[in-house]
Amino acid sequence: MHIDILTLFPEMFDSPFSVSILKRAIDRKLVSIGLHNIRDHTHDKHHVVDDYPYGGGAGMMLKPGPIFEAVESIRAGLDGQEPSQLPVILLTPQGRCFCQEITHELSKYSHLILICGRYEGIDERVRQHLVTDEISIGDYVLGGGELAAMVVVDAMVRLLPGVLGSEVSAVDESHATGLLEYPQYTRPEVYRGWSVPQVLLSGDHAQIAKWRREQAIQRTVERRPELLDKASLCLEERQLVNKLNKS
Ligand code: ADE
């Protein structure tokens, strides 16, 4: 997978991409990242990327020209791939709300462009004539799309084949099953008097799987009950949900 990121602050991406899973994925060439400074696509002496909004109002806007030209320069370098097939995603609080389902959807592309907005907004023509999708990472306003782009890249890359040490580690975790993840423990068996649940030490894999599934359901009922509408549960598990809701 190749991800091109358009930003006014490429240096913001240095540290998240140089540690842990993302670094390993980049080093192993499972993903490559192209960072593009939007300012490099200006033509004036001062490399101006922003301007006042027509009609007045507070704050500055990102001009359309440098963004169109940055995307067009990436499209011009495509070999073989049809430019219209290349998703161009704007990170914005107005986008569809990012979730694990979208992570799976995006991780299927071999090439993506992410545009990080800044200032009070972006000229609407970028949305209308360049962008193919808009994503928000939550109902709050960040100083720009960079942190949102990092979140999207991090969540997406860990789903790529070969990125996680063990292929199963992305299967059980929160949201992958439509439920929150069950509680996990590691050594020591007793810490400050608090013991690991006995079933996990029993070696009985069927009992452990049953316990984990019940714990995941219980945790989801307690913390994120709205997730249960979409989760795939068998009849017995639905009965457990009803019982937990009544207690
Ligand atoms: N840019 C500013 N706020 C944002 C958000 N919540 N999600 C995505 N991009 C943003």
Would you write up a description of this structure?
There is one protein chain. The radius of gyration is 23 Å and the shape is elongated. The protein is α/β, with parallel strands linked by helices and 247 residues long. The protein has 8 helices and 10 strands. The chain has helices at residues 20-27, 64-76, 100-106, 124-129, 146-157, 169-172, 205-223, 235-246; strands at 2-7, 32-37, 50-51, 61-62, 88-97, 111-116, 121-122, 133-136, 190-191, 194-195. The N and C termini lie far apart (47 Å). It binds adenine (ADE).
Key terms:
single chain, 247 residues, alpha/beta, five-stranded parallel beta sheet, three-stranded mixed beta sheet, 17% strand, elongated, binds adenine
